[in-house]
# Entry
Amino acid sequence: MSFQLFGRRAVLDPSPLLNSRNIIFPKSYYHRPIITSPIILLAAQLTVPEKFTVHSMHCYFVLNGNPRIPIIYYVDIVREGRSFHTRTVQAKQRGNAIFTTTCSFTIPISAKFPDDENRMRSVVIHEPVFAADTVPPEQCESEGAIIDRLLRTGRIDEDGAAMARARCVQDQFEWRSVGLSRLEPETANTAVEPERKIWRKWVRSKAPIANPLFNNPALAYISDSWFLGTVGRVNPAARRERMGMMVSLDHTIYFHAGEKTRLDDWLLVETTSPWAGEERGLVRMNIWTKDGMLLATCVQEGILRLKDGREGNEVQDGASSGTVSPKPKL
# Structure
């Protein structure tokens, strides 16, 4: 990995890193949509002192990347304060920005108040309650079991099953689906509006992550997995076969306890879609530790266009983890 500092700008060429066999993220992940690349956040992290950890990341998709062209990351040092450091990162191909993000880093409160009792007295604290009745990952279907069930019931054919299994093998993360449920307790009304549904699933890395520097970049990676696709999960009008275009526009992550992030243990991912309209959709995500601590909150907005002839010949699907295709004109 080539990392050079020029005044208040750092330039990261990750090519040697991507070809290393020791990194947790293989080169194929680099060719996913740019936000999911762990190198984005890693590039910014490398420019701040070790005691600082990321607490927010605001991302915008500018152009689609070409997997055959190297990406160079430019990190601008925007602010270096006593409590907060700010960085912007631009991912460029052939001099053109295809992605931009602003990351803010802070010193964890645990470093300022090591004693739990003093921290409780000195800091304003509240957070949502973890759903205690959530089915644990050990009792949820594995991806392989789900593929077998869909094949057995005729919902997918042999080719579809083979493609799904190949995707699972390539994925560095293991997923277990809890399922779709309602936000409120059961009522006499059986109809549930899309904005009142919640989709839950468990995730963890298949291999241990030895270097703690990679945990928050890994969380950024999984935060974009099937995120916008939540709209299709909660609203039948946005099912895959009806969509002409589903493209992410922006993506925000708030890391509530970045210093405690561990991706090699089970995390619960909850997603909802509080609003859709104007050919756009909004989705929210909470990421919890298995013992009920809220690690991160994410928000994403994307374009949702039904098939009507405007989508062009090649469609970018923001709900999948497939390869990058040319982005349709918006």
Notes: Confidence is low (pLDDT under 50) at residues 16-33, 314-330.
